[in-house]
Amino acid sequence: MFGPELYDLFVRVKQSFDPSGVFNPGIKISDRPFTDHIDYVRLSKPCATCAKCNAVCPVYDVFQSEDMSSRGWFEIVTDKNYSYLNSKRVVEACLNCKSCRTACPAGVDVSQLILDRRAEHPNEMAGVIFRFHAQTALFETILKVSREVSADLGSASDAASARSSDEAVYASSQPRRQDCRLSL
Questions:
Q1: Into how many domains does the chain fold?
Q2: pTM above 0.90, yes or no
């Protein structure tokens, strides 16, 4: 970051102020390169493993287990040895509430990753359903249309029940015909 010339200057300054190396040994100035401790595999993943998603995950609230949390699910579904059959319980536990996406500072959408993995379901019909569900924009549009249709049907049935109740009120307000037969 600073280059070898500037780093050598840092080493000389540190040795002049701390010849025995008591202050922060190996922290700022070290014999090892500062990149030795970096886990590049972890850094290549978008998840920062901060666990902010676990704080908002309703499944984690119930189970209090890392394998039943957003962060744990991310590790499971992005593992190179992932298999649906070996992680079925975990993948099917997600409620797809998208709370993890809103809480994640890196913007990782674990629920979408899980939907994509669910689409790999070995059961053909379930796979079709999960693949459809994974197409978020199309799925949301169909949900919106179905809500509008059910609202229209609900208002039509409310109108029909209002008509029948109006008819009942009208019938009760009419005078009843009395039997006019005379008995002899």
A1: 2
A2: no
